[in-house]
């Protein structure tokens, strides 16, 4: 049994060891987390920035080039889910929790501490820069890693009928290795560890913010036991959702939550400073798009403020660490879509909605800050988990807004945990589309355990460090699967063109002149001879 389930036992065993070490030696765990965050950020920050930018360029090349019309499945297949349900599931299993956590807080933090010292803190210029960099952190770059992993897994799983495992993506590069299985098993274990750490980071942020809201608005204690109770409640609802399956549990919860989100956004836009919010969105988007390349690759060599490690480097490490989970889940719900539809749907629609959320919630907060109604920047800087609820205190219907926010966060927690446990169970069950329930529940327990361990030992800093450490090796794996994907797409397109060529009586249909020449059944000497004697009649 161990041989058959070796990935499951190895990855679960490593997570259990991490939980035990954090529980027994919390001080050492916290010091190690802090040292890892500073060291990796200092030595590999440039690598994270460059990697994510390369992912964006690579995906745009695939979507806009010759491979854009290839479907993730048989060429005559149709999508399994409607566009609305598809986008809802992307957001609910993606960065919904993190967006609620940082959506209002991040612009205020950048307002107080402008990126790279590019503006004076607390000024209108700092406010403009705050929206620009917030859009950048939650924009296209963030979803590029998800899109890349999801694309190659969906291609192999639905187009090539192979299990959706990271090892299968890399296997073609190891054909010359005599005993590749230990390497492939190690890659699968690495993908599981990276996924668990990334998910624990997101769940931890949600738990911290829920506890902050409950303390701010309802007087609940902000301590370990309250956080454990929140995770326990989440696990109970998650268990019920797991019994319902993907098409009922996650889909229904995602649709309910996104309906609440859209209603929430509409209310905050209409009841707040509408013109200021719209101005901030347009101006911030102009700054983001106009400075996209510069922002993507800016890493001041003598910047000792720690801003890059705290924000951009952390964000990119977080998305890389979480990409096996989100990518696998996106692949699972994207069968039948073309590569172009997949890339533009995943890499552009969720970031656009994220920027709208930041503009509305951050715009409300920034307007109140600049008008002098309340010092939200100081409140967020003092406790980022309760900043959003402090803003509600100067708005009508404070209790209702707080309760709705807590409900949205809780549902995001449940859908994230449910989909994460589903995907990790799939990754440790040889890529099965329907992993057994005991694996889904056991991974739910382990994810919750590592989450509460990180929170108890070192709080937000521990969550950031976990993502940073697990992301570094997996980012190298992502470059490897990029190479494999190009090879597989080229082979797939050649096969389609060759079939088309023969179905049309050797008529050169669909390919360029070089591909058509290659498909010809004439031998190479005859093809060269004909090419030499062919003349353009217009040149006579």
Describe, in plain words, how this protein is organized in 3D.
The chain is mainly α and 540 residues long. 77% of the residues lie in helices and 0% in strands. It has 22 helices and no strands. The longest helix is centred in the C-terminal third of the chain and has 67 residues, at 437-503.
Observed structural traits:
single chain, 540 residues, mainly alpha, 22 helices, 77% helix, globular
Query: What is the distance, rounded to the nearest whole angstrom, between the alpha carbons of the first and last residues?
Result: 76 Å
Which percent band covers the strand fraction?
A: under 5%
How much helicity do the residues have? over 70%
How would you describe the shape? globular
Please provide the ordered H/E string of secondary-structure elements: HHHHHHHHHHHHHHHHHHHHHH
Number of helices: 22
Structural class: mainly alpha
Poorly predicted sequence stretches spanning 5 or more consecutive residues: 531-540
Q: What Rg is obtained from the alpha carbons, in whole angstroms? A: 25 Å
What is the average per-residue confidence, as pLDDT, rounded to a whole number? 80
Task: Please outline the major beta sheet.
Answer: none
Oligomer: single chain
Strand tally is 0
